[in-house]
Amino acid sequence: MSERDLSDQEEIHSKVLRAGRRTYFFDVRSTKAGDYYLTITESKKFTHDDGSFHYKKHKIYLYKEDFDAFKENVEEMMDFIINEKGSEVISERHQKDFKKEEAEIEVPVENTSTNTSSFTDVSFEDI
């Protein structure tokens, strides 16, 4: 039996979330010992100039001993984003009719420890 056949046998339960060019796969799989773990796969479609396309995939393996901490961290980060920016999507990539303000007003930050302007933007697409 090939390695691919073995991995297909291990799949217990699956759910798919389509989100624009990205698709997320949540798969419950079985270890050799018969315990379960979760894989989360992000698949993103890229189209070439000639019309052909390819997919890039990134996978996370999440084991039961890490569930509580992982869930707490994800919930904390999502709550932070919603509390800071609300739930409305304001990205130009997601809203074709999004208009950037002509004049942006800069507000001075008194406490530099909370100033996020020193953070570096990171693209997880390169990982």
Total helices: the number is 2
As laid out across the biggest beta sheet, the strand order is 1-2-3-4
**CATH class value of the domain at 3-64:** Alpha Beta
Q: How helical, in percent, are the residues?
A: 10-25%
Order of helices and strands: HEEEEH
Task: State the CATH topology of the domain at 3-64.
Answer: Nuclear Transport Factor 2, Chain: A
Q: Give the averaged pLDDT, no decimals.
A: 78
Q: Quick one: biggest sheet? A: 4 strands, antiparallel
Give unreliable regions as ranges: 112-119
Distance between the termini: 32 Å
Q: What percentage of amino acids are in beta strands?
A: 25-35%
* Number of E-state strands: 4
Organism: marine sediment metagenome
Region (Disordered): 100-127
Pfam families: DUF3276 (PF11680)
Family: Belongs to the PUR DNA-binding protein family.
Key features?
DNA-binding, alpha+beta, purine-rich negative regulatory element binding, Nuclear Transport Factor 2, Chain: A, 21% helix, 127 residues, PUR-bd_fam, 2 helices
